[in-house]
Amino acid sequence: GFHLSGTVTEPAMQSEPETVCNVAISFDRCKITSVTCSCGNKDIFYCAHVVALSLYRIRKPDQVKLHLPISEKLFQMNREQLQKFVQYLITVHHTEVLPTAQKLADEILSQNSEINQVHGAPDPTAGASIDDENCWHLDEEQVQEQVKIFLSQGGYHGSGKQLNLLFAKVREMLKMRDSNGARMLTLITEQFMADPRLSLWRQQGTTMTDKYRQLWDELGALWMCIVLNPHCKLEQKASWLKQLKKWNSVDVCPWEDGNHGNELPNLTNALPQGANANQDSSNRPHRTVFTRAIEACDLHWRDSHLQHIISSDLYTNYCYHDDTENSLFDSHGWPLWHEHVPTACARVDALRSHGYPREALRLAIAIVNTLRRQQQKQLEMFRAQKKELLHRGVTSITNLEGWVGHPLDPIGTLFSSLMEACRVDDESFHGFSDFTENMGQCKSLEYQHLPAHKFLEEGESYLTLAVEVALIGLGQQRIMPDGLYAQEKVCRNEEQLISKLQEIELDDTLVKIFRKQAVFLLEAGPYSGLGEVIHRESVPMHTFAKYLFTSLLPHDAELAYKTALRAMRLLVLESTAPSGDMSRPHHIASVVPNRYPRWFTLSHIESQQCELASTMLTAAKGDVRRLETVLESIQKNIHSSSHIFKLAQDAFKIATLMDSLPDITLLKVSLELGLQVFLFIIITVEERNLTQCWWV
């Protein structure tokens, strides 16, 4: 049938009487295209009565009486029967249909009325024409109203959670290839753009809240998925592009980096080291949250190499010997995919989102193999120029765009895609539930080294590949981005990714991956955040190194300490004054830092540096040589007297634990750090007195 109608009875409750609801549902080619219910409930989703009637029809089809379309029955009636039918219909529903009946009667009797210009009459029970567009019912007015209400609550009362649920619903629609996904996202975006707070914040020169900013990020990421649909029609993409450009041109459209001219300017303009030095942020064209989606409209899926990668597990070329930087296959004959990494990963996210999990997995593996090959090439390049770089002591080599904290979250996308493939319950892989949605209950899930794709080394699995790509991304050397929000996002995403890694139990196979990547990162020079020579304004590695240290310590203590000690540096605070032996307290005056306003998260970074040092002190208890090495690193690299004082306290607490004898070496460490703080205070007071005398 094309139309289902019925009554749904809700039994009486203690405080409410029994209610009977009249429900009508229209169908077209296996989709519910419209619903009405007399309950009056207004919501984005179907009310319980519509669901009940639908389930009743599915489960008990024999108990639902089938009728011919009403137009067929009317055709069988004579004039007297037709008049009786119409009059009885009006009598039963006279209060509802009488005005409409009189209007239609007048129009039919009028020769020149519009209704008489059309042959025949509509019949809602006969179904739509084959040429008519058919899509699932979506109450657009309710979508807009709900989003407007959630936004008006300003992130309170769980409104942020409700908006995230709406975004999850859009992803679910895309996964089911429901055309309403793009329609619903358009309605949501229109309400976001109409939010009066955007203009208010712009006028007042204040920034939007962090939670609200994250909603805009998800909005931009979803539009990337929409326009990268591998099977969308050109006219659809053209329509989306027109709409995106319209939103993009609005003055209050949020910027991708969260600045919108309201945060502190880049007063240092970065340090001018080489051609890759940052440009003045005021001269750079600003990207909005829609810019990447607009750019993605120019991307396509027609590349034959890409099509072979995503469509087959057997795509190899063992006779391929092109070892250039952009070769299509590696030395194993396995396919590689060379594209701007975040863009390539956006393709993976689009495939996953549109219900193509296996295609997404194939592309993810090709991307990771490309990253691993690139990592090896970079190591070889550094070895070739190592002597020169170490002699200079500085480098202009840097990645201006980091992968961790990036708006498109490339590393998170690869990690999620690979982790889904190694879940014990493979049912979710076929249904393709979103890994990020399940992270809250991740501890109850099990991940195994399931039989892997053929394009992996012997002993490797999807799990090892997921862990390795996370380590590659976290260890990537990248420049600190501009703006408070972008810098906070780098910290937040790094911590989120490490949190996911911590939920994986390390076995011997994964420990080998950790060893391999730690060695790579230590030896890869300026291409690695843990390399010997890095750009002065590189994102520090303290948080990542603490995780590496604790993971490696039970298995390879020497490598663990080497990694953590290398990560202790904080080059942006190093003085450009003449170098000296910075490891001793009497040289402390030479490392008093110039506070760079551009590093908005500097206090958080310094606290993470302190945490790393404290972790090493705790682990080194009882080992004189390691304690001395850690002490030297603290004295050389930590410039905050409050953090040095905290470490002195930590060392004292660790040395005097109740269940063991005092550790004399740790007590000496505590004393020396305490003296360093004392000396720092004296020097600061003397400098202040000298300054006052000079002014006098």
From TrEMBL:
<dbReference type="InterPro" id="IPR007527">
    <property type="entry name" value="Znf_SWIM"/>
</dbReference>
<protein>
    <submittedName>
        <fullName>Zinc finger SWIM domain-containing protein 6</fullName>
    </submittedName>
</protein>
<keyword id="KW-0862">Zinc</keyword>
<dbReference type="GO" id="GO:0031462">
    <property type="term" value="C:Cul2-RING ubiquitin ligase complex"/>
</dbReference>
<dbReference type="GO" id="GO:0008270">
    <property type="term" value="F:zinc ion binding"/>
</dbReference>
<feature type="domain" description="SWIM-type">
    <location>
        <begin position="21"/>
        <end position="58"/>
    </location>
</feature>
<keyword id="KW-0863">Zinc-finger</keyword>
<keyword id="KW-0479">Metal-binding</keyword>
